[in-house]
Amino acid sequence: MVEWVGPVYKKLAKSELGSEHGHTSGIVPTTDTRSFFGEPLLYKKSHFIKKMVIDFSYGREHIILKANVMYFFSKTHKHVHITGGGLMPAYKRYGAKEGDVLLFWKSMYDPSAYRAQLVKQNSKKWDKIKNFVDKKGGFIKSKIELDDESLENNQEEVYQQESLIDPAFNDSDFPPTKKPSSIKISESNRFPRNKAKGDYVLKKSEYKCSVDSSHKTFVSRTGNIYMEKHHLIPLEYFNEFENSLDDINNISCICPLCHRKLHNGKTTEVLPILKKLWERKKSGLKESNISVDFDRLAKMYFS
Fold first, then answer.
1. In CA terms, which of 37, 122, 233, 292 is 20 to 30 Å from 84?
2. What's the domain range around 124?
């Protein structure tokens, strides 16, 4: 399943990296890539266009950032600006310099979901893109893959890899959504999950197992206790609900043992875990209009 389209690139300007006066914390897309991020609704008035949830990566590290697409209009400025408090710290964290490139991909199914990868000059990734980045920014016509696309056959591994997440996120950043009408679930076609939602649930749960908070695992490379994300109502039942099942109220933070037990354990061991998670989630599920009674949920696991 093709989920991410792109990339487009933006060469980082000195002002976009910040100055001693703290000039900016965002980036200015070039005119030819503006539609990729969001066209202005008006052209003679500054206004908010849309929000972005950006999975920002450099090497093996990922940070989920919150940003806004804005349109600025004045006598001297008529441009779209991607701005957010987390962008500049991310640049500084990884030592970005003027002329380095950000590659962007966007989700086909979630208009707010983006991937951004920092590519430094003279890196291995730079060697693959240097012939396509001769301007300030633009579309890259050659196929440039996301680094984790080599794991396409193990989507679960990619999904479970925890990312750091901007503390500015809250529940309102991940509202319930209608399921995308353009996809159907089948045995060979899995619904694309927004990894940021799962990472947010882990953080909100304080990296404690929702089955038993005393369950211990190990410290992950992010410095947090490793936990996993589990969709209580399985995504394979996507077609039976009006709203998307990839919803923060349908995702539980659980330890790897409980997770494996839910998928592979005996009925007598699974039912108590399932009942406990359902009790914790049922009010939130109802708010998201994807509620299910326990008998129906149990049949989903044992039919």
1. 122
2. 4-140
Q: What is the pLDDT of residues 95-120, one digit of tens each?
A: 999 999 999 999 988 889 999 999 99
Where residue 32 sits, what CATH number does that domain have?
2.40.330.30
Instruction: Convert the pLDDT of each residue in 40-60 to its tens digit.
Output: 988 899 999 999 999 999 988
The answer to whether residue 24 is domain-embedded is yes
